[in-house]
Amino acid sequence: MTSAGPAVPALDEAPDAGAMRRAMGQFATGVTVITTVTGDGQPAGCTVSAFSSLSLDPPLVLVCIDRRRAMHQHLTAGSGFGVNVLRTDQRELAVRFAGRGDDRFAGLRTTPGRHGIPLIDGAIAQIQCDLHAVLDGGDHAIVVGRVRQLATREGDPLLYAQGAFLDLPPAQWEGALADAQHEWLLNAPW
Ligand SMILES: Cc1cc2nc3c(=O)[nH]c(=O)nc-3n(C[C@H](O)[C@H](O)[C@H](O)COP(=O)(O)O)c2cc1C
Q1: Which long-range CB contacts under 8 A does 178-183 form with residues at least 24 apart?
Q2: Which amino acids bring their CB within 6 angstroms of ligand 1?
Q3: Distance from the CA of 7 to the center of ligand 1, in angstroms?
Q4: Which of 32, 54, 95, 175 is buried most, with the most CB atoms less than 10 Å from its CB?
Q5: What is the full per-residue pLDDT of the chain (190 aa) written as tens digits?
Q6: CA Rg, the chain, in Å?
């Protein structure tokens, strides 16, 4: 069987980091804070948008963590982690857990989960995982967690794309989606 259309030209040069970031930023994600405990029992956490559901049976999720970060050490040496999916009004936490502040947990309401891992109160999902695998992901590590406990709460997810947080309540998405579908139906070729 021959393939239809022109061949995709080979990418013979690596794209520069800026082009890579711009292209990847076109893909919108939610925002999580990944939490764990360090070897000496201290809470640790960082903001992560590279989170994904991976498998239903067994239940697995993955996060991609920069190898140069302290969090990489904490996660790969630990026994598990929590995924706290942030709500629209938790943008401050997304910034705090990516910043240089001394104590990211100062004044924050948390509940201890498995292995004593802190779970952030008010997160719209709290996903508790045991460490399942650490895979090679270039300058990041792909940290796979086996889901052990779940909690979900009502609320709208904080969204991130093009290097910024998006504030678009679901009511507006529905309107935008309805318009888009209307346009699409009008322009459909049948
Ligand atoms: C919106 C947002 C998303 C981020 N996503 C990731 C990610 O997916 N993986 C990652 O390693 N760092 C990500 N970061 C950066 C980390 O949060 C940041 O490097 C943090 O300081 C790491 O914690 P540590 O220095 O304590 O290890 C993100 C930052 C922001 C603001």
Answers
A1: none
A2: 31, 46-50, 64-66, 69-71, 94, 97-98, 160
A3: 37
A4: 32
A5: 455 566 655 566 788 999 999 999 999 999 999 999 999 999 999 999 999 999 999 999 999 999 999 999 999 999 999 999 999 999 999 999 999 888 999 999 999 999 999 999 999 999 999 999 999 999 999 999 999 999 999 999 999 999 999 976 555 555 655 655 555 445 543 3
A6: 20
